[in-house]
Design brief:
three-stranded antiparallel β-sheet, alpha+beta, elongated, 5 helices, Arc Repressor Mutant, subunit A, 66% helix
Amino acid sequence: MTGSDVDGVLAALAEPTRRRLLDLLAARGEATATALAADLPVSRQAVLKHLVVLEAAGLVTQYRAGREVRFRVTSERLATTARWMAGLAADWDRRLLALKNAAEATTRTPDH
């Protein structure tokens, strides 16, 4: 996964309506834009625009089932982004621990 892939996922997740769409799709397994719009305070067209962003980020896919276009969550990019974030958090934890240890070492007084 490239940096631009992570950027795309994070940008897509920055919008609350898109996060809600992912929640709805995860709960249902799959749904049409019309069905999703019924549970959101936005139009079907707005839902479709959000789904396009989620699809470009690799977070949803669409497929045709008869006359319907159905959407479902794809988890690979989300999982990869989560692993990247966990690695970043672990790196910061190591840095903060080193800083804490250095600060504690300078405040210790030698025993006499």
